[in-house]
Specification:
Shape: elongated
Number of helices: 0
Structural class: mainly beta
Largest sheet: 3 strands, antiparallel
Number of strands: 5
Order of helices and strands: EEEEE
């Protein structure tokens, strides 16, 4: 793991499903491309959070639904599908 200052950018975030609002039991696919824009290799952890719009009980503001650690070489873009 690199602790050096490396800049990373995420772009082209998209989701595939019937709607950005997901009903219980439904699935969506989330796609993002992450690119190392720095001059050194480094690791990045991409995280996907959701939140519930309507609830009858108090819930957390954000819920971690998926994550993946990526190792990126300088200038390397990497697509990530289905977090």
């Amino acid at each position: 793991m690199s602790t050096s200052p490396t800049v990373r950018e995420g772009s082209d975030v998209s989701q595939r499903g019937s709607s950005p609002t997901v009903r219980e039991g439904s699935n969506i696919t989330v796609t993002v491309e992450v690119k190392n824009t720095g001059s050194r290799e480094g690791d990045e952890v991409v995280q996907l959070y959701t939140h519930q719009l309507v609830t009858s009980v108090t819930t957390y503001e954000k819920n971690l639904r998926g994550f993946e650690r990526l190792h990126l070489k300088p200038g390397e873009p990497k697509p990530l599908v289905s977090l």
